[in-house]
Amino acid sequence: MASMIPYDRYSRALRSWPFDEFDRFFDAPFAALSTGNAGFKMNVEDAGTAYVVTAELPGVKREDIDVELNEGRLSVSVEKKESDEEKGKNYLYKESGEWSATRGVFLKDAATTGLTAKLEGGILTVNVPKQDEKANVTKIAID
Question: Superkingdom of this entry's organism (predicted)?
Fold first, then answer.
């Protein structure tokens, strides 16, 4: 029992592997393909009469973003492509490139009118006004 090493100490010891930087260099191109990567961060705030949705999109142009509200589901889609001038360059290592991602959130009482969106400083801000909830339940009198 005394010879057992807790797992966290074992993993810490492995992190000091001398070739870590070399391994990270080759893992970086595949990081975007991992399933744990959501693509971009998104926050949803209930501001009383409206929802305020913010998405962190640094380096993304306005024309590469698509925001859509469909039956209460707000979707933010980004498709970032390389420009023609970047394609001609001879990179030895490049972490930025073409990628696409979609994030969505369901807002049950979202209004379809009065929506606004603004991209400033790499932050997309979408204001979605709330509408009065319609009663989906109808009481039926029994004769």
Answer: Bacteria
